[in-house]
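Task: sequence design from structure.
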């Protein structure tokens, strides 16, 4: 995009059933693109091995979570597998106003809330696994959850997948490299939409005036 044209940032949502590969894809996009940052969610669940507070999630207890929600400090919130998750409002608004994009790793419940409150800024991508067998394999391979939790995630996947028509784009994540290329293409196209280029009319007026 021309340096003469200002742009409002966008909110890129990436959703999928657990184990479909969205975390790997999100990390790949963040490494490949300097103009997008991750929205760090709040959660009441305990950290998994290797997760860092403030980087992977903001880990809070249920009381603190409820107080923040009551003060209107969340863009969206949802309960998933007995724990609460939410997106803090203030850092997202700062980024969008500065022309930076924000990546969200949230489920369909959170996406519906963002759609209701910030549809103009929202780009929604749903990630599908290539097969049920591959989804189960990925859940077991990452070895972060008990067999009980893996079974619960598999049983919930069908309902999660049923929400794919609510999204703007769908990627079948068979190959991570191909999926990342598709996601980057979506992001590039969405950045170029006329309505997001807030400085476009002034640029065009100046351009026409000099012809």
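Answer:
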């Amino acid at each position: 995009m021309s340096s003469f044209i200002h742009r409002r940032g966008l909110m890129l949502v990436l959703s999928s059933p657990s184990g479909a590969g969205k975390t790997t894809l999100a990390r790949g996009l963040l490494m490949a693109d300097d103009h997008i940052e991750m929205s760090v969610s709040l959660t009441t669940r305990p950290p998994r091995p290797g997760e860092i507070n403030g980087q992977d999630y903001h880990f809070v207890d249920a009381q603190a979570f409820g107080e923040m929600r009551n003060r209107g400090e969340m863009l969206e919130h949802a309960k998933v597998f007995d724990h609460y998750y939410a997106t803090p409002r203030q850092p997202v608004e700062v980024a969008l106003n500065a022309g930076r994009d924000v990546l969200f790793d949230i489920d369909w419940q959170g996406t519906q809330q963002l759609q209701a409150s910030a549809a103009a800024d929202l780009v929604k991508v749903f990630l599908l696994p290539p097969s049920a067998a591959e989804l189960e394999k990925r859940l077991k391979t990452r070895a972060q959850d008990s067999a009980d939790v893996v079974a619960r995630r598999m049983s919930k996947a069908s309902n999660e997948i049923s929400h794919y028509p609510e999204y703007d784009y769908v990627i079948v994540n068979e190959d991570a490299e191909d999926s990342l290329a598709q996601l980057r293409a979506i992001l590039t196209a969405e950045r170029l939409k006329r309505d997001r280029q807030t400085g476009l009319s002034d640029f065009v007026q100046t351009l026409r005036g000099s012809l």
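The chain has a mean pLDDT of 90.
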